Please model this.
Amino acid sequence: MGTKFANLHIKTINHEVILDALQRLSNKAGSILATPDYSAMSIIDQYVYRSSNEKQINKTASSVSFYLNQEMSWSNVLNDHFSWGTVEQIGELLSNFVSEPVMTIGFFDEDIFEFTLFQEGEIKTKKYFCEEWAIEEYGLVSEVIDLDYLESVLELNHEEITKLLELRNPEQAIDELSRMIQINLWVHSEWISEDNEIEERYSKLELKIM
Model:
């Protein structure tokens, strides 16, 4: 099995705006966000996890845990449920609760890097960085590319955006985007307990579901 991770970013460092948006998100989708995504685990790992956490899993969720960090003009958000295929849905929903752009990053098995930008509940940009075979094998839907919007939100020039969009290799693309916008995009909530550097940069936020 390859590397899997997902993260979400909101283009604001206004703490009140972030708290309000995440609280509204928790109220709307808290029961989902309070449950870890098991899709990246093998059947055996799922059984072990569920067995050792049976009481917690069966208990009705009353709160959602997020991990927050700020880099440049973005607030970075992690959650145990985020994965490729779910973080995009959460990002789209969250964009209804905040006026600023929402960016989602989904990376799956070194096969696919999906980059998406949402604003006011709409997909503004969706790009798959992968080879042609992956598009066919995974049944990926049409991309949405708005160059002017990308340049404005990412604060990059036309030449930089064009160079980025030409990339196909998922690892190369996410490395290049990370460098361009100066944000570490190689991050997942599960890595916090394993990586001291990530743990130092992220703070935990617990929100009650209302």
Observations:
- The chain has one domain: 4-208.
- The two ends are 38 Å apart (CA to CA).
- DSSP finds nine helices and seven strands in the chain.
- Residues 38-50 have pLDDT under 50 and may be disordered.
